[in-house]
User: Fold this.
Amino acid sequence: MDFGLKGKRALVVGASGGLGRAIARSLIGEGVQTAICSRDQSRIQAAAKEIGAALGLVCDLSEPGAGRAVIDKLLAAWGTLDILVMNTGGPPKGNFAEITDAQWQASFQNLWLGAVDAFKAVLPSMQKGHWGRLLLVTSAAAREPMASLTISNGLRAGLTGLAKSLSQEVARNGITVNCLLPGYTDTERLRELGIAAEKITALIPAGRLGKPEELAALAAFLCSEPAAYITGQTIAVDGGYLRAH
Assistant:
């Protein structure tokens, strides 16, 4: 299938490793001129070189205005941006009683306001061109809360509502807005959480962890021309882990 993406321009946020890097690699494979960004300059430059990204930029969404700044920089350099993939790293682990006010505020800025700033910055360009793809990579926790991931459970669920609302406002402009919910996937984040793989796989009907490339393939399709009629959707890539929906 021809995804119709050759010559399009994309930014993938949080792409120095894991799911973000896999998504960027998939888009590059479809002929998309792709910029990637993350907080660590050395890691993002190394990732850009490895996967053949057009640019590797530093962007720390925990800083107010960082999302808008990186979009403005790309628009100044390229003129347009057709695809924006928001893949923000997971917030601190903890139960409700353990989480400080400062952690809530920092995570809200990083996960939520960072996406809002970036969307506000990129939408005028997409609306002018009557074409755009906004993709939020969140977590299965947005639909079915996971133990000790209270911040993620709460804030990522809110992003689902934001995406649905925004999708209805911009659909007439040829812009789609969708959410991808990765389940337990073999990434650095999973190892950071310190959860034994054996315990997890016992809960997954597929009997294994997901591969970043599996989610990345769906991400590339949702960014494609053939996916133009798919918007406002929240799609899990979880090996059957979610039971409730």
Remarks:
- Helices lie at 18-29, 41-51, 66-78, 101-129, 150-170, 188-193, 197-201, 212-222.
